[in-house]
Amino acid sequence: MKLLRAWVGLWAMASVLLLSGCGYNDFQRLDEQVKSGWAEVLNQYQRRADLVPNLVATVKGEANFEQETLTKVIEARARATSIQATPELINNPEAFQKFQAAQGELSGALSRLLVVSENYPNLKANQGFQDLRVQLEGTENRITVARNRYIKAVQDYNVLARSFPSNLTAMVFGYEVKPGFTVSNEAAISAPPAVNFDKPAAPAAAASK
What we know:
By secondary structure, the chain is mainly α. Helices cover 75% and strands 0% of the residues. The protein starts with a helix and ends with a helix.
């Protein structure tokens, strides 16, 4: 019996050393970092989505504002928020791609909205609109920071999953490579809306054509 306990103890110790040496603990640590990073990305995307209704309502008060621009923002927000962003989404490459494409579309629509607003002096003088613009730009910056942290966490995790001998641990425990933001979509969603309010405003009538 003592000999059996000794063998069990040695086997347990060997297992711990083997798992530690093959990156098991690192997988746990990096997986938590990925989850935490993703949660922050979602938090900032939700913050942006919550700003859109007030922004649209404020812009609607401006006579002759481009209806097409407003419609695209509303539709893009609807598509972005219709995707259920669960933690499991980061392990589904196809669903993840759809999600980031929808968020990129919303970024583009909002950027267009702010650029078009330059043509409307009343909007530029509207304090409520200016406050929302500042909040939106700040949120876009936070999205960029959160997304970059997530990208780094995914890169670290994926390097571990692909490297030897930790890739053997990944095979045994089913630790698959995680999807990241694609290069093409990153170009679309990484730039916050850029608005130069020093630029001379074009006539409002021209914007409505």
